[in-house]
Structure formats: C-alpha cells, structure tokens
Design brief:
Helices cover about 55% and strands about 10% of the residues. It has 25 helices and 11 strands. Strands 1, 2, 3, 4, 5 and 6 form a 6-stranded antiparallel beta sheet that branches. The protein has a 5-stranded antiparallel beta sheet with strand order 9-8-10-7-11, with no helix packed on it. Helix 5 (about 65-80) runs antiparallel to helix 10 (about 165-175), helix 9 (about 140-155) runs antiparallel to helix 11 and helix 21 (about 490-505) packs antiparallel against helix 25. It is elongated and about 95 Å long.
C-alpha cells in the first residue's frame, strides 16, 4: 500500500503533504504565531519549486483576501459609532424564562455576525451577557457558550460573515468564472441557526453551571491588606527596596499613600515616611507575617476597593488566551509587570481565587487575572494582545448621528452587492471610503482595525488549497472518498462535510475551507454533478465547530469569563456538530438540488 501511494504521488505532492502536516502540528503543539507559520509554509512550497512565484504569492492578490481587509475598515466605522452597543441595549430585555433568554440572545448575535467580525461581536457581548445573566438569576456559563455558538452560526448566513465563506467563494470564482451572491448561504444558514437555537434549549442540561471567575474578586478584603507605617517604625527614611517592603513573599505592593493622602509611584526607590499607607495584594497570611516582622500596623480604614481606586491606576480584568506565552509561567518569574507597567493583584481559576501568592501561580489557559494598570493602557500592543483578552474597556462610543450614518452605509453595501448592482469588492471599498469621509472612524482607527495576522492566514490558506489541487492530492483524496462511499452524491457530500466539521475543531476554519475546497470540487466533478451545492454545504460545515474551545476564536473569548473546563464544550458540542451537520445536508439539498453536469 505504501509503495502504491509513493508511486502514485510525485515529489511535489509529498513535499506538500509534509508541509501541511508540519504546519498543523506546529499550530497545535506550539505557541508560534499563526501568520508566521503560514508564511513559512508558503516559503517552503516556493523554495522547493512546488509552486512558482506567481502561484506562491497569489493569495495576497486574491479578491477574497482584499475584501476581508477592506471590511475591517467598515467594521471599525460601525464599532466606533456605537451601532453594536445600541443594538445590544435595545434587544436583550428581561425575558422570564431560559428558553426566551437564549432566543433573545442568539438571534441578534447571529444577525450581527452575518455582517461583522464574529470576534468583534462576541467581545462586545461578553461583559454585557455576564451582567444580564446576574439580572436574570442565571449563571453566565449557561449563556456564554450559546453566545459563541450563535456568532458562528450567524457568520455562515452571508459570504462576508465568516472567512471560509469568502475563501471558498473566491476559489469557486477563480475556478469557474461565476460569482456567488452575498446571500448564497442565507437560507441554509438561517435554517441551521433555527435548529441550533432549538437544540441549545433542548440540551440546556448539558451546559455547565459554573461559578463566574470575577466572583472570586468581589471582595477586595479577600486578597488585599492595607498597612500603616507608625511614626516610630525603624525603617522610616529608607527606601521601599532597602527596607524589604517592595518585593515580599506571598504578595505584591500595589499602592502607596504618603501622609497627605497623595498616591505615590510604586518603585523600589520611594522613601518611607511615618503614617504612610501601603496596600499589598496576595497571600493574606504571609502578608500579615511580613507586617509583624517589619512593625507595620493595620490601617484605620480601607481605601482600596473594586469600585473606587485612584483613577490613574484602575483595576482591569483579563483572561489568559490559548497559546499565550504566559501559560506554564509565573508573573514573578517574568518581566511582564515591568514591561507593561502593571501589577498582578490576584488570580482566579474556574471562578475560585487561587490561594497562593499571585506572582507565584503557574498560569493556565483561561485563568482570570486582576491587574492594576495605567488608566490609558493600550491593550492592543503585541505584548498584551497575544497573551491576554481584556473585556472591561473604558472606550465607550457615543451614540448619535454617526450611528445612523454607519448603519446606512452598511445596509447600502449589502443591498448593492446582494442585488448584483456592484461586485462585493467594489461595494466594500465604497463603504470603507464612506466610513472615513463621514467620520464614522478616523484613519488611525481604520488602520488599527485591520487584523494583518488574519489576512496572512487567509492568504496562506488559499495558497495551500492551490498546492493541494496542483499536486494531485485533492484528486487522490476525492477518488479515495468515492471508493469508500460509492457514487451516491448525498453520501459523498455528507462524508466530506463530516470530516470537515471535525477537522475544523483543531485547525483554522479558513485553512479547513481552503484545504477541503479542491477535495469537494474534485469529488463533485468526478460524480458528474455541479459542485455548487457541495461547496455551499462545505461552507456551513467548516464553520460548525462546537466541540472544543480551540475550535473557534469566539470559543476562546468565552472560555475564561465562563469559568469553563475543556470538557464542557465536548458535552454539548459533539451532539451539536452532528445535529447541525444533518440540518446542513438537508437544507442545502432542498434549496440547491443536486444537478448533473451537462
């Protein structure tokens, strides 16, 4: 068997297989940046001669990649004019049952995700859903997984809602010269969404009832101690560093007030004076032991609370991302605090505060960190963005004229593309220009909104799909599937979609879409059927990842705030994968009946 496979494939095919397997292994088992991994894969295929220069870099000139980049600017206009906030404020309400709450949550999220970045929508909703859940008397963990599911299912409903739809439609256009309508997947997507909402309600007992991580931080008395320097303290006149009060066992000095009640910078060189108040966070018993050895006494009244802290150093909550370089390390053993001018006050895991010195806790994905930060800290810097997800942003846009203007621009873009007046790419460029001209966002906000990492992954995925097709791998896999499944087109479609659904649990859905496009296309042609309905089914499948938190960026966004465990997604997600797969195959074959090729 091995010799047949070897003889059946040329050297180029084996290089491609090794490159794809190596790339996915790196993405799964290392913390390397995904854009660099995809760029490296492109480099290997080009250097080894599998692809020529034009083919290797064709992804960067792909209309679908350019469209995604331009749409980032459109989304920036909607975000900075408060469109999302207005929708959230007026749609959630106060439902009187869990079923109604899930419906009121999932439907608007799905609609928004049909036109906007899923990540943007979920990031906005996470904090709001947590507050809403408390108001309804429901654990947020019962609503945050449905929130993430809705964003994924909603994204399928239009070509611009999720990257795989754009990549598959772009590859289809290059292959056939035919352009898919922006609403091609709307009916299948809406049907699967309806089935998904009903399934979540029916399977709600499988959703975990977890304690919210922030509940571990509700009382600052649980993890902070305020100490007073008496006037006869022997360390008066020394600096914090000299007195051994800056770096202590079991905690961190996060605030210092002199006798005039003016907050002072927390540095090793700050002198100690009588009546100074020192605020420590960490392991309470160890801090108390330190206070005795250094002859400090308890302050008369607390000044450090969750709701009131010096405006220049507010408390911020962040969650450790999957793939973060902080995983497996301690804050105390790194330069994180110094590099970002932050102090770690506490760490929670699955809703429980960890009773260790915060700076000594070995961090894990999903851990909740309570940080004392500068007021205007830029959480988009690479050192923070790649490791932590912040949700309590103070940047709240004003709702006004810009809200109406940006909404009108978005509606016009979708309408012009849907009715075939102007191609989608041109519509996106016009909408982006209108957002800037009408001042829905400025140039700096527009450039900051463009996610270059996603664009690199997008371009790399298209190139991998081309290599898989050019080297004959797609044809071989298609023949193999036909040998196993026979010549029944429905069985073949279901088999490929089934594999696609579960592969996308572990790799980027964009990469899965690009990888399975040539396989699905070849299989359909070999069966003698129009590939169009097969590809529509594939679009839905590669965006239907429900069973692991790493299956979608939105799952990772809710993982920490919901206090989830990895297995929580599998309990309900495996059934959801199968249910949506069945709904997908059913509705696609009703809306787009299989048609034999002439």
């Amino acid at each position: 068997m091995e010799s047949v496979l070897f003889l059946g494939f040329g050297l180029d095919a084996w290089i491609t297989i090794a490159t794809v397997l190596g790339m996915f292994s790196i993405l799964l088992f290392t913390k390397w940046r995904s854009d660099l991994v995809f760029l490296g894969a492109i480099g290997v295929l080009y250097i080894t001669g599998v692809l020529d220069a034009k083919e290797a870099f064709s992804g960067f000139s792909s209309t679908s990649v350019i469209t995604v980049g331009v749409l980032f600017v459109v989304v920036a206009g909607l975000t900075h004019t408060g469109v999302l906030q207005w929708i959230v404020k007026h749609l959630l309400g106060t439902p009187d049952s869990y079923s109604k709450a899930v419906t009121r949550l999932m439907l608007p999220v799905a609609v928004l995700s049909s036109f906007l970045s899923n990540t943007t929508v979920v990031t906005l909703f996470v904090g709001i859903v947590k507050m809403w859940a408390r108001k309804l008397g429901v654990s947020p963990s019962k609503l945050l997984i449905p929130l993430s599911y809705a964003s994924g299912m909603g994204g399928v409903c239009t070509l611009i809602g999720t990257p795989p739809n754009l990549i598959i439609s772009g590859l289809y256009e290059e292959k056939t010269g035919e352009v898919m309508n922006i609403l091609t997947t709307t009916i299948p997507g809406l049907f699967c969404l309806g089935i998904g909402v009903l399934s979540v309600i029916a399977l709600r007992r499988l959703l975990p009832d977890r304690k919210v991580p922030e509940s571990a931080f509700e009382s600052t008395g649980d993890y902070t101690v305020e100490l007073l320097v008496p006037s006869d303290n022997p360390y008066i006149g020394q600096t914090l560093g000299e007195a051994g009060l800056f770096h202590i066992n079991g905690g961190s000095l996060i605030k210092m007030y002199h006798f005039d009640n003016v907050p002072m910078p927390v540095t090793e060189d700050e002198p100690i004076m009588g009546c100074d108040r020192l605020i420590y966070a960490g392991q309470i018993d160890e801090i108390i032991d330190m206070s005795r050895s250094h002859r400090l006494v308890s302050a008369d009244y607390p000044v450090f609370t969750m709701s009131e802290i010096d405006s220049s150093r507010p408390l911020r909550t962040a969650y450790v991302k999957f793939g973060s370089s902080l995983i497996g390390t301690t804050i105390g053993g790194s330069s994180f605090e110094k590099d970002n001018d932050m102090v770690l006050a506490a760490v929670a895991r699955r809703g429980e505060r960890i009773n260790e010195a915060p700076r000594n806790v070995v961090l894990a994905a999903g851990d909740t960190l309570l940080l004392v930060c500068p007021k205007n800290v830029n959480v988009e810097t690479p050192s923070l963005k790649d490791d932590l997800q912040f949700f309590d942003s103070d940047d709240v846009p004003n709702i006004g004229r810009g809200t109406i203007v940006s909404t009108a621009i978005m509606i016009a873009m979708v309408a012009l593309s849907a009715f075939g007046v102007i191609p989608l790419l041109q519509c996106a460029f016009l909408a982006a220009a209108a957002m800037l001209i009408c001042r829905c966002c400025n140039m700096e906000q527009a450039m900051r909104a463009i996610n270059w990492e996603i664009l690199m992954v997008f371009a790399g995925s298209a190139v991998l799909g081309l290599a898989i097709q050019k080297t004959g791998i797609a044809e071989w896999l298609a023949n193999g599937i036909l040998d196993v499944c026979g010549t029944n087109p429905l069985v073949v479609m279901t088999a490929i979609c089934f594999v696609g659904t579960f592969v996308t649990e572990f790799i980027s859905n964009t990469a899965a879409g690009a990888m399975f496009f040539p396989i699905m296309y070849e299989a359909a042609e070999k069966l003698g059927y129009d590939p169009f309905p097969f590809l529509v089914a594939l679009m839905v499948s590669v965006s239907s990842s429900f069973a692991t938190p790493i299956g979608s960026p939105t799952h990772m966004l809710v993982y920490g705030p919901g206090g989830y465990r990895f297995s929580d997604f599998m309990r309900i997600g495996l059934l959801m994968n199968l249910i949506i797969l069945a709904a997908n195959i059913l509705i696609v074959n009703i809306v787009y009946p299989l048609t034999p090729l002439p």
